[in-house]
Amino acid sequence: MGYKKKVYYDVKTEKNRVALTFDIGNGHQTFEKVVHVLAEKRVEKSTFFLSSPVLASFPEIGKRVKEMGYEIGSHGHNHYNYTEYDNRWIEEQVRKAEEIIFDTTQVRPRLIRTPNGDFDQRVVEKLSEMGYTTIHWSADSFDWMNPGVDIIIERVLSKARPGVIILMHASDTAQQTHIALPSIIDGLRLKGFEFVTVSELIHEEQA
């Protein structure tokens, strides 16, 4: 696909579609609360970027994401900045994550969100050579900082526009995400948005 060397912050589209994405870097309790909300609100499309150490400890997370039909992306193995390491290290990290994700879900991810959202052109090109498309975001909830439920909701809804990629977390360190999520989902729907996966957004731009 021709878009691999591009970093996706969002997608240019005239359709009222957004991608709700969740990074998971630790624990399993917040994840369970988040997917409960998604199921209750009947959100059928979402993208989860999974860190492989979490799957090694809690393989049920990967299995649950797959069973619910959500898209699976990679969040790498160790949560270090890729720009600080050479290409060989990056390849080892990404391949290790890929194998653990595959062993758990039978899915080989082709999307990656680098740890801490850290990358440069060299990193993007290396990931592209490995068959990955780098995904960033254009609406950051800052939910990992636990700034308050109302602040999380406002940060997402104020950035809502067609093609936006929303960053949230389903890690245990994000303790307010599941509380804010119902209002975020309702608010986006009131604005006329529907939820799609990141890949569906990308294909929308390519069409």
Any key phrases for this structure?
TIM Barrel, 8 helices, 43% helix, 207 residues, alpha/beta, globular, six-stranded parallel sheet, 8 strands, single chain, two-stranded parallel sheet
Give a description of the structure.
With 207 residues, the chain is of the alpha/beta class. It has a single domain, classed as TIM Barrel (Alpha-Beta Barrel). 43% of the residues lie in helices and 14% in strands. Strands 1, 2, 3, 6, 7 and 8 form a six-stranded parallel sheet that branches. Helix 1 links the parallel strand 1 and strand 2. The longest helix has 19 residues. The mean pLDDT is 95.
Work out the helix count. 8
Class based on secondary structure composition and strand pairing = alpha/beta
Number of strands: 8
**Percent helix among the residues?**
40-55%
Global Rg: 16 Å
Largest sheet: 6 strands, parallel
The succession of helices and strands, N to C, reads: EHEHHEHEHEEHEHEH
The CATH architecture can be given as: Alpha-Beta Barrel
Distance between the termini: 12 Å
Given as residue ranges, the uncertain stretches (5+ residues, pLDDT < 50) are: none
Remind me, CATH topology? TIM Barrel
**What is the count of structural domains?**
1
CATH superfamily: Glycoside hydrolase/deacetylase
Mean pLDDT, all residues? 95
Shape: globular
CATH C-level: Alpha Beta
